[in-house]
UniProtKB/TrEMBL annotation:
Annotated Arrestin C-terminal-like domain residues: 196-336
PANTHER family: ARRESTIN DOMAIN CONTAINING PROTEIN, FI21816P1
InterPro entries: Arrestin-like_C, Arrestin-like_N, Arrestin_C-like, Arrestin_domain-protein, Ig_E-set
Protein name: Arrestin C-terminal-like domain-containing protein
GO cellular component: cytoplasm
SUPFAM superfamilies documented for this protein: E set domains
C-alpha cells in the first residue's frame, strides 16, 4: 500500500505500510482523522506494534553581522578599531512529539493479511499555521506530520515507516466579508489656507485570501467641494515577518510585496456609487515572483500582511493635511500540499480487516526523543487494541 519502507519487510510479495489523513489541511482546533494501511505478504512479520507518530514544531535560525569596537593592544593612549562579528540565533517550540501505539498483536508478530487502523485526534486550539521561509543566513518553518511506523526486531535494520505532512491553517476568527473605512479630509495649502472638503470611502472585498487570489478594492470619492486634485490612488500589499530567538532577540523583516495604481480625480469631481473607482491587486510576492507565504502567529515565527490604499493630493501642506488612506490586516491561508493529490495505489485484491478506531490522547507518557535512543516514560493508563501490559519504554 505504501512505498516508503525499511529493511525487513518483504515488498516482493506486495507488503507495505501507508498513512493518509482525511484532508490535506485543517484549522487549529479541528479533528484530524485518518487511516494506517498495512499489507503483510509472504508470511507473518516478527513485530507486534503499530505506532502513530505525530510531530509539530516551529523553528528558526539565522545569523546577523554586527560592527563592534575594541581596544588596539599596545597603544598608549589607547586606540580603538572596529571589526565585524557574526552572531548566531536560533529557537524551537514543540507542539507534538508523540509516539502512540494504536494496535498491538498479542501473539508477538503481525499475521499475514491486510489491515486498516483508523485513528483520530483533536488539534490544539492555539496552533500557529504551517509556514516555511528561507533566505541567505535565515530559515524558519512551522511543520506538522503524521507517520505510521513498525519497529524492526533487529535494531541494526531500519524501521518500517511511512510519513505524511499535513497543513494547519490558523482559525479565521473575524468575518471574511468586506472591510471598509471612510475619511473626511479638509486639506490646506502651504499657507494653511483651507482648500475645501474631501470624502473618501475605501472597501476591500474580504479579509482572508488564498495565495494568488486577486484582492478587489472599491474607492468612492466626493471631491466636488474641494480645490485639490487627486492624481493617483495606490494600493499596496506589505508583509512583516518577525522571528524570536531563545534569548528573546527579535529580527524583523518588512517587505513590500506588490503595488497597483489607478487614476484619481480632478478638483471639483466625484466618483460615487456606480461611478466609484475599482482597483485590483494580485496577491503574489512580486519581488520574489512566487506565491505569498501563509499568515502565522506562533511564539517563534510570526508572519502577517496588510492591504492599504492611499490617495495623493496636489498642492497641499504636508504638515497640516492628512494623507487619505486606509490599511487592513489580511490573512493568507496555506496552500494545500501538492503531493496529497497523488493517487493512492493499493495492492491487487485489497480487502483489509478494519480495526476499531483509536481516539488519540496526547500526554507526556507518549513523548519521545527523536533519533537519540532516549528512553521515555512508559504509558501507564492507556490500552490500545490488544495492548494488555504496557511496560516497555518507547524509542524514537
Amino acid at each position: 500500500m505504501g512505498n516508503q519502507h525499511g529493511q525487513g519487510f518483504d515488498h516482493s510479495k506486495q507488503s507495505g505500510l501507508y498513512i493518509r489523513t482525511d484532508k490535506p489541511f485543517y484549522f487549529a482546533g479541528e479533528e484530524v482523522k485518518g487511516n494506517i494501511y498495512l499489507n503483510v505478504g509472504g508470511g507473518a512479520f516478527p513485530s507486534s506494534t503499530i505506532y502513530l507518530k505525530v510531530k509539530g514544531s516551529e523553528k528558526a535560525k539565522w545569523t546577523e553581522v554586527k560592527t563592534v569596537w575594541e581596544n588596539v593592544p599596545g597603544t598608549n593612549p589607547p586606540q580603538r578599531r572596529s571589526k565585524q562579528v557574526t552572531e548566531h540565533y536560533d529557537n524551537e517550540n514543540e507542539f507534538y512529539q508523540h509516539k502512540i501505539p494504536v494496535y498491538i498483536f498479542q501473539q508477538g508478530m503481525i499475521p499475514l493479511g491486510q489491515y486498516t487502523f483508523p485513528f483520530s485526534f483533536k488539534l490544539k486550539e492555539n496552533l500557529p499555521g504551517s509556514f516555511q521561509y528561507q533566505e541567505k543566513d535565515l530559515e524558519c518553518k512551522i511543520r506538522y506530520s503524521v507517520k505510521a511506523e513498525i519497529d524492526s526486531p533487529n535494531k541494526n535494520l531500519d524501521k518500517v515507516k511511512y510519513k505524511q505532512e499535513f497543513l494547519v491553517r490558523e482559525p479565521i476568527k473575524e468575518q471574511i466579508n468586506q472591510s471598509e473605512g471612510s475619511q473626511v479630509l479638509q486639506p490646506t495649502s502651504c499657507c494653511c489656507i483651507p482648500l475645501g472638503t474631501i470624502l473618501f470611502k475605501f472597501q476591500f472585498d474580504k479579509t482572508a485570501y488564498q495565495p494568488g487570489e486577486i484582492a478587489q478594492l472599491q474607492v468612492e470619492i466626493d471631491n466636488s467641494q474641494s480645490k485639490v486634485g487627486i492624481p493617483t490612488i495606490t494600493g499596496r500589499l506589505t508583509n512583516t515577518l518577525r522571528i524570536v530567538s531563545k534569548q528573546g532577540h527579535s529580527k524583523l523583516i518588512h517587505r513590500s510585496c506588490g503595488t497597483s495604481m489607478i487614476p484619481g480625480l480632478q478638483a471639483g469631481q466625484s466618483a460615487l456609487n456606480e461611478q466609484r473607482k475599482n482597483m485590483t491587486l494580485s496577491l503574489v510576492d512580486q519581488g520574489r515572483n512566487q506565491p505569498l507565504d501563509p499568515t502565522t502567529n506562533g511564539k517563534v515565527v510570526m508572519n502577517n500582511y496588510q492591504l492599504s490604499a492611499t490617495g495623493d493630493l496636489d498642492g497641499t501642506c504636508l504638515c497640516c493635511t492628512t494623507t487619505p488612506g486606509i490599511e487592513f490586516p489580511i490573512r493568507i491561508v496555506a496552500k494545500p500540499i501538492a503531493s496529497y493529490d497523488q493517487p493512492v495505489v493499493a495492492p491487487s485484491g485489497w480487502n483489509p480487516q478494519v480495526m476499531n478506531a483509536v481516539a488519540v490522547q496526547f500526554d507526556d507518557s507518549y513523548k519521545y526523543q527523536p533519533a537519540t535512543g532516549g528512553v521515555l516514560v512508559p504509558a501507564q493508563n492507556h490500552n490500545p487494541q490488544g495492548y494488555q501490559n504496557p511496560n516497555q519504554p518507547y524509542y524514537g
